[in-house]
Structure formats: structure tokens, C-alpha cells
Known about the structure:
347 residues, alpha/beta, Spore Coat Polysaccharide Biosynthesis Protein SpsA, Chain A, twelve-stranded mixed sheet
Amino acid sequence: MSVYVVLVNYNGWEDTVACLDSLFRSDYPRFRVLVCDNGSGDGSLDKIAQWAEGGRSLPPARRGTLARLHHPPRVRALPFARYDRRAAESGGEVGEEAPLVLIDCGENLGFAGGNNVALRYALARGDFDHAWLLNNDTVVEPDAMRAMAARLAESAEGGLCAATLLHYHDPSRVQALGGGWYCKWLGLAWHLGRLSRWPARPDRDRIERLLHYPVGASMMVSKGFLEEVGLLCEEYFLYFEELDWVLRAAGRYGVVYAPESVVYHKVGASVGTSSNPAAKSAACDYWNARNRIFFTRRWFPEALPTVYLGLLGTLAVRLLLGKWDRAAMLLRLLCGGEDARPVVRPG
Length: 347
């Protein structure tokens, strides 16, 4: 079985290089990596190309606590291909089989849009069994890819596979055991196992029964799923894409979980995601609130009144924090306006 690994980069070449260094230590025999750059302004693609040529590596200060997964850096050159968006979406050059493909999307297409460019490349070529959508601010265990591919292969109904996500800066803390549970009445999700410690012994079957969606930071999708259900919905830009995908596939494909697939996530390195309201970026606040409304209106309109009540609570918290601009933005969203979209910045 062949796997395409998809990374979306936005002004985060150092995180991407660390992720690539860990991926190319994987024990899986057949895979290629596609890096889609979402209009970075820091020369990310050039720097990643320099890394592939063997001429650039991470400074020691950025190696972190999991350096064993991405250090020492590669010293030999890695063949790569480079395309613009149009060429990539048509499948690139005939006969090209570089282990690394760099794609310039030309602009910030968001999570779904950036991933979809790579998925169109894969579908145009047709030479794969699974695609692994992986955040660029992650590093992976060498057997992480193998565990996910094996779980999909053994499951008759599985179309999406979730992984074990641990916090990069504190690997004993669980971010999610596969994915989460979603409450439609509040428009909020809860990551399974988020308060637990690792190593643990997760009950795979129980977690699969509870899973409403896989966390998008690491999810593997089958070729059949992509061909039958379609690509990610680009109307979200950030957040809720996984849930939308699962609901579109209902009755045809389910979500499975590979506990042995361990991925370490830096969490919010590109968009400022945080569970602490005071630390959330403007982009995180905007897209989270906007898509709670958009997703609920699309799939669960009966829950709109309680979702709006929950967002009023969010607005009150922003007022208490003195974030007047965020409160004004939330009020405009609640009144039916789309508001000006904040720029997604690194950090």
C-alpha cells in the first residue's frame, strides 16, 4: 500500500523541516510527502528546498525535547519536485516520483484548501491507497504511519483513521486519543482523553464507539473515501472540516483509531489555537465562532438557539478580558455579519 503524506505550511518552515526529518525516519516502505505552502512570506519553500538539498538544518535551540525523532538532520540530498498550484492539481509531470513534492499554492487557502491542492495531485495520479493529512507542527514516531495504514486496511468500514496525539512540549500529556466528541447543542467539541497522561492503555473499541471525528492534526483517509465522498469543504477555512467530512460520509464510511500511531503536536503553532481564552489569536476566535454558526446552520439548524447562547457567553468572556475588538467581532457574527477576516499569522 502506498501513502501520500500531506503537510500544509504557512510561514513555518522550521516546524515543517522538523516534521520532515521525522517522517523520513518512518519505517513504512512506500510513501511520498507533499508540502503545500499557503502563500508564506518568509521564503519557506526555498528554505525547505535547501533542507532537501542537504544545505540547511535546524539550529540546536529549536530541536526541542523530542530531538531523537528529527535529529541528527539529514546530510544527504533528498530528490524533490516543485510545482505551482495549477501544475500540481493536474498531477505534475508524467513519470515524476520524487519522495518530496513542494507545491506553491500562491495564497493562503486555509486548512481545507491547502490540503485539497495536494489531494487533487494525488487523485490525478491515482497511485496511492491512503493519504495522511498531518499538521506541519508535529513530529511522528517511526511506526506512526504503518499503524494507521494497517488499521484502515483491516477495517471494512473505516475511511478515516485517527492517531494518538500528545503534546510536543510535554509528551506525557494527551491532546487527544484519536479525536473527539461533539455536542451539537453547544457547537463545541471535547477531545477524548485530553486530561489523561501517557503512556496509557486506551481501549480502542470503546474510543471508536465514542469518536465523532478525528483530530485534523493527524488523520489518514482512504482513496475510496476521497473518490466517493469528495475533498474537504473549503467554506470553513479553519476548524470544523473534519466533522463536516464525517457527516458527509455517514452511512458509507466510519472513523477508526490506531492507538499505536503516536504523533507529537505543538498545538496552534500557525494560527494561535489555545484552550485559554486570553491566549487565543484573533484568527482562532473568528473562525471558531464563525464556523460554529456555519456548521450548525448547515447540519443541525435545530441547535442554533443554544449555540447562539453559548457564543453570547464567549462574548461576555472577551469583555471581561478587555478584548473589546474581539467582543465587537463576535457581536457582528451573532447579528449575521461575516466580519473582516483576521490575518492568520504564525505563533
